[in-house]
Amino acid sequence: MIKKGKKFASLLLALMLVASGCGQTDTEVTDYGQSSGSDSETSVMEESAGKTISDMLGGEELSANKSFSIAGKSATVNVAYNAKGLDKLSVFKVDSITEENLKEEDIVKALLGDSATLLDGSSDKKFLATKDGDSEAVILTNSWVLYHNNVKSNYFADSAPLAIDDPTVTVHNYEGTHNDIPYNLLVSYSKNYNELILSFFPKNPGDVVGNDKLDHIDHSYPDGHFYAYQHSILDYDLESVMSDRPNTCSMTADEVNETVKNVLKNDLYLDIPEVALNAYDDMQRVEIPEGKDPVRSEVIYYSNDSLDSTTLEGGVRDGYYVTVMTSLCDLSVISEVDYIDYTADDLSGGEIYINDSGVVGFNISSRYIFKETVTEGANLMNFDEAMDAFAKNAEANLTAEDIELADETVKFESINLEYFPIPSADSANEYLLTPCWILEAENAKYQTIARVVISATDGSFVKVIHEKEE
User: Cβ contacts of residue 291 below 8 Å, gap of 6+?
Assistant: First the structure.
């Protein structure tokens, strides 16, 4: 079963992607620094060329137990990692999104054309509000943006202010028509996270399917069920309870993906690689019955009255749901931050709703503009070699200040393989999204001592990050 207490405003759902081959441009591994290590590390890279990820790492069920020292204190690594299911991992060159390159006017024009009107709070309308017929989805995303950027503003349930006076974040709301249907559009930029946040939904979702009584839009999960929350979790097996109402969208999975890529590239100016798209949402928390394949997430239109029926009476299935850019090649993407900030990690991601007419709605947040795929298949160090490199790098680079919260022994017992933006030597605004090992140490009080990042391609030290001091 799934964990479903998730709100639309937190970009709706925990997202996950499938790997389907990464990128287009092959270059030698030296183009992104894999040869910067010792001769032995370089030979490891050469030997692993052409192997699968699990072959490179030394297996699927990986573990390491090592002892070393940091600034005179004893330290240990005692970690385990499951590498099952990993496909090719690539290295991507990206630029940070800035106010100068986010192309707000072009995005508004592409989505709403000449019908677009900026709602800036200067007229009688001071709030987006559901009572005024504005999109519930866009309102919730507005409120979420303000909350996560610590913007102090008065707003109420089912509403969001149109005028924001805060130098750290811009929040621009528009209304207009798309496919002859009234829409709300949010374009926001956070200086705190160098993040573009977009939210675009019909004011009344039911207008998309010709039934204005269906005022909610959501999606099913890869187990074929739709889950809703109304005092408790409601569970609808679509093929059972909606067998009389099949999905009216005729698009194949390839056609949906192509439409999503076109929307991202041509309307939002985010040329995100296909490996960052996924038609199966929340695979980590949904159990697929044994012997069954996951099914594409479908778009569901419904009303509160629909939820009172065991058959989701009145509900309509029309379209498909795709998640965007919460991970690459099946790995999470960690932010480039000066301190451990789980809020920042939560920001990135998105979702797009598609039907035969094209894009229906989306929530997207992105920190990066993709420039190119540096290499399509990155070579990774053997896991044991990488953990040896970690111990050596931690000993050489961490100081007494880095481990001041540690107990008598610094214990690294948490590990993940994730993408991390390593600054490029070519530009202050350019990064290489590279697979990295992220190890964390905690003390007996469950305080995070340090998050240490090393490159999974050559074991080089990238960064140590701490929790922010209050």
Answer: none
The whole-number pLDDT of residue 394 equals 94
Q: Counting Cβ atoms within 10 Å, is residue 165 exposed (0-12), middle (13-18) or buried (19+)? A: exposed
- Indicate the average pLDDT of the chain: 84
Q: How far apart are CA 111 and CA 403, in angstroms?
A: 50
Q: What pLDDT shows up at residue 37?
A: 39
Q: Please tell me the pTM assigned to this model.
A: 0.81
Q: Angle 7-299-87 (CA atoms, 0-180°, nearest 5)? A: 85
**Chain segment 254-279, per-residue pLDDT in tens:** 999 999 999 999 999 998 888 888 87
Asked if 433 and 368 touch (Cβ cutoff 8 Å), the reply is yes
> pLDDT at position 200, please?
98
The first and second tokens of residue 136, run together, are 């519930």
Alpha-carbon gap, residue 194 to 69, rounded angstroms: 37
Say how many C-beta atoms besides its own lie within 10 A of residue 421's C-beta: 22
Report the Cα 375 to chain-centroid distance in Å. Answer: 22
Rounded Cα distance, 322 and 351, in Å: 6
Q: What is the pLDDT of residue 398?
A: 93
What's at 280, amino acid-wise? Y
Rounded distance between C-alpha atoms, residue 281 and residue 223, angstroms: 10
b/e per residue 454-464 (b: at least 16 CB within 10 A) = bbbbbbbbbbb
Nearest to 187 by CA among 369, 195, 179: 195
Looking up tokens 């540690």 gives 406
Which residues are paired to 467 by β-bridges? Answer: 340
